[in-house]
Amino acid sequence: MAKVAKKHVTAINAIMLKTLAQYITVFAGARSADTENLSMYAEDVAHNVNGLCSFNKQPDAMVLHDCITRQDTIVREFFIDALRYIEDNELIAERYFTCI
Question: Which residues neighbour 37 within 8 Å (Cβ) at sequence distance 6 or greater?
Fold first, then answer.
């Protein structure tokens, strides 16, 4: 397992922020009249923003990886690039890998 270097923090932030923007655009924009689902999407966004904030305070890739993988499938799949980056750079133990 590799140490989380500054380059990893920067890359993960870029991936997460880009993905959050895409998630908001796709789900909130397409369903702007559906207030019940908008609340759910807002919770998904908040969950991932909180995970990213925690990661930035204490760069522990396992915490962020776990934050993403404990969400519904569609949300988890949306953030697959962040999961892959963490796993491809071996920032967590191999036994926690979720991507093939």
Answer: 27, 31
Judged against a pLDDT cut of 80, whether residue 37 lies above it is answered with: no
Is the CB of residue 79 less than 8 Å from the CB of residue 92? no
Paired tokens of 31? 């369903």
Residue 35's contacts (CB-CB under 8 Å, 6 or more residues apart) are none
- Angle CA 39–45–51, to nearest 5: 135
> 7-21: per-residue pLDDT in tens?
999 999 999 999 999
Q: How many CB atoms lie within 10 A of CB 22?
A: 13
Domain boundaries, the chain: 6-96
> Do 80 and 99 contact (CB within 8 A), yes or no?
yes
Residues 81 and 85: their CA atoms lie apart, in Å, by 6
Contact assessment for residue 54 and residue 64, using Cβ atoms and an 8 Å cutoff:
yes
